Amino acid sequence: MSDASTAPKEAGGIRSMTGHGVGEAPLGQGRVLVEIRAVNHRYLDVRVKLPTDVAEHGGAVEERVRRSLRRGRVEVQARLQGDVCGPPALDVDRARAAFGQLSALRDELRPGEPVPLSLLSCVPDLFSASGEKDHEAASEALALATDAACEEVWTMRGREGEALAADLSGHLDALLAQLASVQARVPEMVDGYRQRLRGRIERLLEDGDVSLDPGRIEHEVALFADRADIAEEIARLSSHAAQMRALLRGEDETAGKRLDFLLQEMTRETNTIGSKSADAALAQSVVEMKAAVSRTVDALEQVILGKPQELRLALACLLAQGHLLIEDVPGVGKTTLALALARVLGLEFQRIQFTADLLPADVLGVSVFESGSNAFRFHPG
What we know:
Number of helices: 10
Helix content: 40-55%
Largest sheet: 4 strands, mixed
């Protein structure tokens, strides 16, 4: 396989780890098709499945995919179409040996019972390509098809990344709008505290002959303003938001970790602003930024115990309209987590058990002819 690979093109914006691509290339009198599916994964996990006739090129295909894609669980599957390696040839010696052993077993167990030739179809590797394999041609065809599939995956990841960036930017705009209202409310909060403090003191001194010291009131107001000062938190939150926007417009495909860190820091700054807030309107603005997620997570924790981080990650994936892959040993609550998410958010829940006898119609549905109505009736999967 040629060393020249189509490395992913650098383009602005973040990229999703979910993608799908199909590439094809001519081989012999037929074609080779390479299909790539990629989903979220912390690292790069590539799994290659090739037909027997080109299985020896699996390592080269995997290496080519690793040079093109940086993260995600990537499944690569190739198919051969047409007369790729010439017409099949029967391995006569292998067929005779297999039939002889079947006949000997027949004579031992049930003498006289016929042995159908159709049993030979169950013998593996009974047929092989009649012509000689052109390893160089197969290598080049797989390289072209793999590069084309990787290019499609890269393009799809870019499109999903653009949609994700637009969604995150919308949430960021809403957060900054709330932040602006909080920042505008701070002077009013200090002035309101001054008025409340003055009113309380005047009510206490109504029946007494003690004068009110304006300097003392201003001193108390200054202390309150210092304790309630959120200028530093607002500056850091604005800085984090600016860094997020830069990452969303940047060219780093692996910006997710830094985005996650910035989100954690923004949550911390928001909590600090809320703890310093002594004004009802300001506190309400802070609460609105956290209430929805907190309520949902709290509800989920009533069902899934001891996994708060997993709950928050699952909820974040759902809110971002992404795909979630949960891997663990049986019996630890994977299905329960999905069911709890559906019930808490008012969504539908469906479960498919992928067994060996599962058919496409079990998932997609099937039309069944009913003699009573003399018509086909669709039964959903």
